[in-house]
Design the sequence.
């Protein structure tokens, strides 16, 4: 019997659902998974029969971020790498994008939500953006969007300290729309998606375009600048120490840097 794929794709009644399905690795994302996600987002954008996309995980875990081993073996090489294709895809996606988030949402697991239109969180959701702790910088235009959404000081707490914040705090700063019991989150997201799919697609697309229009170019520029810094910093001593410590299961020591 073939194992299930790491990304499950299901299309029904105009809704494409993309489910992170790598529970044994806490839904950490590999380059191959980014490629599948990027292809699916591109397909959904082009197919008039798909009106809404839902991103979801499991009720116990949304996404633990990048798969560190895969990431070190296949670091993003240029703007056409799968992770950047995925990020550009969600940033410019013209149709409604809905997410359901339960359990840990680490790194990209949090920053991808900045590009979703509706986000529903289980009350067990724990969001974190620990880029500094890995000797890196933010991605997904989070260095632009998080200060705008959270306010500067809360953004600094989230991005400079990199400590987790829970679902109620995410609701307070506007990262999520509602907090529900974990077993209900995916269903609530699906119900919202079905409501959206029943509305006139041209009106949805134009309303989203108008809301995002003033920021779109700036977001893509910020993504490109972050990506250049991220790639450079991957080869620097801080990241090497952080990733080495992660693989050795020890606390990193940045005191000599």
Sequence:
């Amino acid at each position: 019997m073939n194992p299930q794929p790491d990304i499950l794709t299901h299309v029904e009644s105009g809704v494409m659902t993309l489910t992170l399905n790598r529970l044994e690795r806490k839904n950490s994302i590999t380059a191959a998974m980014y490629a599948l996600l990027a292809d699916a987002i591109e397909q959904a954008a082009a197919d008039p029969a798909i009106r809404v996309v839902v991103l979801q995980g499991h009720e116990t875990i949304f996404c633990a971020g990048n798969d560190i081993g895969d990431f070190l073996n296949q670091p993003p090489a240029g703007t056409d790498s799968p992770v950047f294709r995925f990020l550009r895809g969600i940033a410019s996606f013209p149709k409604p994008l809905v997410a359901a988030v339960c359990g840990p949402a680490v790194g990209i697991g949090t920053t991808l939500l900045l590009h979703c239109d509706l986000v529903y969180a289980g009350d067990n959701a724990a969001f974190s953006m620990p880029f500094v702790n890995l000797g890196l910088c933010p991605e997904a235009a989070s260095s632009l969007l998080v200060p705008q959404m959270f306010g500067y000081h809360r953004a600094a707490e989230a991005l400079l300290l990199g400590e987790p914040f829970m679902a109620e705090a995410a609701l307070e700063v506007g990262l999520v729309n509602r907090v529900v019991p974990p077993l209900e989150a995916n269903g609530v997201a699906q119900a919202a998606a079905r409501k959206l799919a029943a509305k006139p697609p041209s009106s949805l697309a134009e309303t989203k375009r108008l809301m995002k229009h003033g920021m779109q170019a700036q977001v893509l520029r910020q993504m490109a600048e972050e990506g250049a810094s991220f790639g450079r910093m991957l080869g620097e001593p801080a990241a090497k120490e952080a990733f080495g410590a992660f693989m050795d299961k020890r606390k990193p020591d940045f005191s000599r840097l």
Q: What stands out?
A: The two ends are 50 Å apart (CA to CA). DSSP finds ten helices and nine strands in the chain. Residues 201-234 form the longest helix (34 residues). The chain has a mean pLDDT of 96.
